[in-house]
Specification:
The chain is an alpha/beta fold. Helix content is 59%, strand content 8%.
Amino acid sequence: MKPIIVFCIFFLVCCSLIGQTHEYNNHLDSLTKKSRQFYYKQQDSVYHYFQKIYSLSSANNSWNDSFYTLINWNRQSIYFYDLQQIKSNIRLLDSISLVHKKEIDTSSNRLMIQNSLLYDKAMYYYNINEYSTLRNALLKIIDSYNETQPETLTTGHAYLISSGYSLLAKAYSNEGKYDLAKQYYHQNIRFLQKHLPNNLLYLLNTYSLLGEVYEREGQYGLSSSYFQKSFSSHLKNNSNLNYVITDGCRLIQSKLALTQLDSANHYLNLLRGKIPEKHPFWHKYYEAEAGFYKSKREYQKSTEAYTNAISALKRKWKNQNHDEIALLYNQIGLMNIYFKKYDGALKNFKLGIEQLSVHNPNGTTLLKLLKNRAEALSRIGNESSYPQVITTVNQALIQLDTLKPTFKSQADKLTLIEDVYPLIESGLNALYNLYTIKGEGNYIDQAFKYSEESKSAILLEALLNTKATKFGNIPPELLERESQLKSEIVHLEKKTNYIKEKTDTSEELLFDLKQEHRKLIADLEANYNDYFNLKYNTKTISLRGVQDELGEGEKLISYFYGNHDIYVVTVTKGEKKLGKIPITEELETRIKSAYKDLADPQSDIKELSKKTYQLYNRLLAPFITEADQELTLITDGLLNYIPFSALNTNNNDLTYLIEHSAIRYSNSATLLSELRNRPVNTPNVLAVAPSFDGTSQVNINRSALSPLPHNSLEAKRILSTFEGHSLLKNDASLENFKKEHKKYGILHLATHAIFNDSTPEYSYLAFSQNHNNNNEDLLFVADLYTLRTDADLITLSACETGIGELRRGEGFMGLSRGFFYGGASSIASTLWKVNDASSANLMGLFYTHLSKGESKDRAMQNAQITFLQNNSQNALAHPYYWSGYVLSGNSTPVLIKYHWGYWIIGAVILALLGFWAFTKKKRIS
């Protein structure tokens, strides 16, 4: 790879020569001038002069001249991709640093000297894919920025720090950690604007690298704009040809992704005439050309271009195995899948895997190759290929488990999970077909395992993290600092992202806080084994384990919503089945249409019943029987929008599923098992019912929050069945809620919820207005990540509290999920904007049944049935008024139902037995 940053050679060569002889100075200057004419052109010639300069400086005992000569030599070696020379030079640099440690430590250029060597080591580690070692070196460079007063920061040192930010970001990008990469690139942009404001070249290069991240995320319009600006500027200013070629090829790839073939062809022709015959970047051009021919559906020309790219790349790496070659083979394999040449695809994926280091592969690259190999095998689709798919998927899942702990950003974790969804689907397809052919139950068990691997990995990790911090033997002061950092990050993120108080200073502070938090977590994971093992013990529950937890009449139905099919695993105590539902445009249209009508009280109930019956027939009827009285549904994809309770089960009339079965939801069976093991809190209620007037002089976001005239009545009715406390009207402030909530096992929030489409983490629950601060009355999803509740039940009796941004495997990223982060065992939430009056009635019924010791899902079922019966002759029978409430998580009762009659009979029997034994003993004696 080209060097991220080429240092200003004048700064590196112009060292202090005080005390040197005039003859030595002249000789050194002469050799230096001669060497410059071969920079980035002739490797042998430039090496020849560097060797002479190094020998001269060593003979004259000028250690700092020797040091900077080796550093400058490395710049050229990076350009020519001569890793062996860099490694040799680093050994010499280490030796100089050790021998002259005292002089270096007392030198005014100490940080510059130390960081120059660290950066060269980082570049070497980058090129051999040792990213963990690279990070250690670069973080030391970045940390030195904090040791330096702004007025003493030299230009050379500023270049080094900027290079450190960029190279660290590039490594994160290569690992698929795009959110972290963007954080470091943006920090570098702020750093450059502050310390090197006149260096357009560095700024453009950073923008280009940032564009590469957006391209990898699939944001091609954004990436294209970054590449266009950088490429045009480099072309205009006659910049280093490496930059021109790299940005030009990136621009071509983005244009192809946007199907702008004419534009892509224009830049191909422009670049072709600019690249010298032996330039090391021809592989980039050929790869762009191959993509162009692929887009034109010209298989032979695309293949020829890729063949040229592989040859050029192997020349660059001197026929050594490398991750960059592996990624190119991956692209060739994908091209073959595109043209349905599956044998060719498998051949190239195999070659790609062989390029990776056996001992230290780039895990993200290996996962890509395995995922795509499974896809090709799945496309072949015969009985002999299916076992190969399963073997490949199993290998990939082992790699995924290795990668998961290295992904620290939630955004990056979500991207990782979404990226492996096609892998899981390939495995499920193979297992389903083998099950259909052979009928062996072990295929169902494995299908269930695959489905569980794809679900709620991030939420489960968050719950396990809570357990890990509690039982991981971590010193209290470290836990306190970790909590402080999370709170400070959330507070500052709200200021910068929500309140729009964004400044370079606040963004830099936010970056520093996140960096400190990452370091603290890394230290905890490295130094406290119990913490690490508890946190990442994300072993999924087995199908047998699920059966052991199910009672009679209970059934768990797990859906996996793929790109092509929905796979369904059904489990009861004594039975298991595997099914498949093809995904069609018609099916997805029906789901969306049904949700729209369910959420609209004005929709025609007869038409709605037809739609929901069709969905019932397709999604559920094949998988349930009359015996299934309690259903646990693990929904996925668009199915998350459907309240199954409202599905019509009767073709000739209208009978809702809720009239037959109690329903609870969960993100995964593993998560549900974890929630079941949580201790049950005291069943007392904190009911919160804020007041709203529809206007706001303080917080503009509240101006659209209309009054809720029945929420206080709702709170009072709940407290007529449970002991507890209410916060009503002006007392229902966020401040009071935070003071009181930990005392209660049940939290009921009858308020407004606002879903933020653009930034789901800034969806919020509204509390009574605080006239002193315009955001202290809003509880954001982001706040919930730092708010411990440990409640047995949280009822979010507000609008759309159960929905959010829908992410594959993780479900809705909304308020209800946020409360699970906070420690809740179960949550009742809503799928649309519920009616205030009907909610008060329905929730009153729900808590009445809960107070009788019924399980939460049974209590919700009975409340909805009673509501339907009471309103069968009026408009409130429409599913809009009652089916929007869904129950997720642990459904065990909040009150233990004691059958006192049985206890009394048992006590009498025991007393009689005791009396009989006593009299018998007395007779014998």
